[in-house]
Design brief:
Number of domains: 1
CATH architecture: Sandwich
Number of helices: 1
Helix content: under 10%
CATH topology: Jelly Rolls
CATH class: Mainly Beta
Number of strands: 17
Strand content: over 45%
Length: 275
């Protein structure tokens, strides 16, 4: 009787031990339940909107993210739907928009603009980031091709955070504003930031923060280099009509003095709120 009871206790103890994941039972180790896999190609962390906002953490991919687009699709006459955040509304002007080979392709004719916006977005404080490059070749750009990331666009108003690519490799950065029935007005201009061939990928980041005044911050750097710690320029503006939310997007203008049309490549577009 005693040996029978002891035998039953041993059976119960062994069964209980075997139910714990990762333990050894009868010389065989049972694996613990695998961790939830991290999805490949997850959108970037939004960070805190500060100088280190480009640091990406796969554990924080949603907070503050408005638009995320790697252009990993094919579109023949528009930019189509972003990976996250909605569909681009294209306005080709005298040029064209398409997506191929993992980049957005924006062709712009001389003296005209080609643009695409997230018209459904209505955001005041926003950080915009993108990877940009031009088309290599001997075609003269005139005074340059101007590539802008646009914020607070509504009713004829908008802010442009802008870089200019020139024939001699000089890259400049500026902020400008648009108001209804008025020409574009520069807010601040840094004529020369760096030198790079037109086809070299550049990263840009612009912030539009606050109201009355709005703080504007921008930087540009070679994609192969580390991001600069500071901003290339920082300025404030309190223009009525621009102290509220609006849509965002990409705008490209080519000098009227250019010899022919040119193409701008866009990748890794990110729009995030600033906390």
């Amino acid at each position: 009787m005693r040996s029978s009871v002891i035998g039953q206790l041993l059976v119960l103890l062994l069964a209980g031990a075997g139910s714990a994941a990762g333990c050894t039972t009868f010389g065989v180790t049972e694996p613990a339940e695998p961790a939830e896999p991290i999805e490949a190609g997850a959108p970037p962390s939004t960070g805190d909107g500060g100088d280190d906002a480009g640091e990406r953490d796969a554990g924080d991919v949603d907070a503050g993210l408005i638009v995320y687009d790697t252009f990993s699709r094919n579109e023949s006459a528009e930019l189509g739907a972003a990976d996250f955040g909605g569909t681009w509304v294209s306005s080709p002007g005298g040029g064209s928009l398409s997506v191929a080979s993992g980049v957005g392709r924006i062709v712009v004719a001389k003296g005209s603009s080609t643009q695409a916006y997230m018209d459904h977005v209505d955001q005041t404080d926003v950080e915009l980031e993108a990877l940009l490059s031009g088309k290599s070749g001997p075609v003269s750009l005139g005074s340059g091709v101007y590539v802008s990331l646009v914020a607070r666009r509504h009713d004829g108003f908008r802010y442009n955070g802008k870089i200019v690519l020139r024939d001699n490799g000089s890259v400049g950065l500026s902020f400008s504003k648009f108001e209804p029935s008025k020409p574009e007005a520069d807010i601040v201009t840094v004529a020369h930031v760096l030198d790079a061939p037109e086809s070299e990928p550049l990263r840009v980041r612009f912030q539009f923060v606050g109201a009355r005044p709005t703080r504007l911050r921008g930087k540009v750097w070679k994609a192969a280099d580390a991001e600069p710690a500071g901003w290339t320029t920082e300025v404030t503006d309190a223009t009525d009509g621009l102290q509220q939310g609006g849509s965002l997007g990409v705008h490209v203008f080519l000098s009227t003095l250019a010899a022919a049309s040119t193409e701008i490549l866009v990748d890794d577009f990110v729009a995030r709120t600033i906390r």
